[in-house]
Amino acid sequence: MKKLFLTALLALPLNAMSEEVADTTFTYNGKQITISEDSVETHVSIYAPDGTEMKKTKESTFIDTQEVERFYVSSPFFNTNPQYMPTTPTAYVGFTGLSGSILGFGSAEGVSTKLTHSSEAAFKFIDMGFWLNKQRTWSISAAMNIKWTDIKFRGDNVLTKDAEGRASFQHIEGAKSSRLFALGSDTHLMLKWYKYFKDPDNDRLSIGFGLTATNYNLRNNFTSYKLNDEIYPQAAGLKLNNNLLGLRLQVSWGGGSIYLLKSLTPQFKSGYGPKCYPFSIGIGIAF
Q1: Exposed (0-12), middle (13-18) or buried (19+): which is 195, by Cβ within 10 Å?
Q2: What's the CA gap between 211 and 127, in Å, rounded?
C-alpha cells in the first residue's frame, strides 16, 4: 500500500508536466527546425548543423487573422494584394460643364457650355483603403488619377484673355468650337458602404461619398476656337484655380460605376474670370 501511494505522488508532477505544450523540433536537410507557441503567436526558429541559430531575413511569426486589422493597397501596375478589390474606377469618362453656383447645375452668367460635347477622362494609378468593421460593410478609401478636361462652349462664344490673364467671353461672328482644355490630377477620399449578394467578391453594391481634390498643371491648359475652318489657339496661362475641392458621389456594382462630382471651388481665380463652378457626371470601370 505504501509503495502504491508513493508511486501516485511521483506521478503527479509528471502529469502536470505532460499538460504543458512542448516545442516541436524536427530535422530538415541537416537543419534543426523548432516550432514554439504561446497564447498569442507561433514562432519558427531554424538552427544550422553546428547549433547556431540562423538569422531571419523576413518576419516568420504567425498570429490569428481574426486579431489583425488588415490594410490593402492596389494598383493596376502593382498587384500588391489581390484580396482587395477596389470600387474606385480604374478608368472613367464623363460629361462636364460649368455651373453658376456651388451646389447648382445651371449655366453661369455669360457662360454657355455644350454639356454633351464637353468631356473628361481619367486613369487611376493608385488606390488604397481599409475596412472599418469585420463585416466589411464600411470602408475608407483613397485614390489618385491623372485627368483630362475638355470644356466646349456654345455658338460664337469665344473664351479669350487679356494681357493680365483675365478671362472673358466674346462674340466673334462665325467662330465655333471654342474650348478650354486642362490637364491635371484628382485625389479622392471616400467613405463607402457595401451590400453583398451571392458572390461577396464580385456581386456587391457600393455607395460612396467623399471629397475630391483636383490639381491642374497650369502649363498644360489652353483655349482655342475655329473660324473659317482655321484653328486659332489662345496663349496658355489662364488664371485658373489650380487647386479645386469638390464633393463626389459614387455608386458601384461589380466592376462598373457611375459618379457625380461637384466642385466647391470656382474655375477661375477671383477677378480673373466669370464666377463658375465645374461639375461632371460619368461612368467608370474597375479592373
Answers
A1: exposed
A2: 15
The amino acid that residue 99 corresponds to is S
> Of 118, 107, 230, 226, which is closest to residue 172 (Cα–Cα)?
226
CA neighbor of 275 nearest in space, from 98, 91, 49, 28: 98
**72-98 core/surface letters (b: 16 or more CB in 10 A; e: else):** bebbeeeeeeeebebbbbbebebbbbb
Q: How far apart are the C-alpha atoms of 70 and 132, rounded to whole Å?
A: 10
Task: Please give the DSSP secondary-structure letter assigned to residue 5.
Answer: H
Of 198, 190, 201, 214, the C-alpha closest to 89 is 190
- Written as one letter, the residue type at 234 is Q
Instruction: Kindly tell me the number of DSSP H helices and DSSP E strands found in the chain.
Output: 1, 16
pLDDT single digits (tens) 208-251: 999 999 998 766 677 777 888 788 776 556 777 889 999 999 99
How far is Cα 87 from Cα 255, in angstroms, rounded to an integer?
7
CA angle 228, 230, 231 (to 5 degrees): 130
Contact 145, 122 (CB under 8 A): yes
Tell me the pTM.
0.66
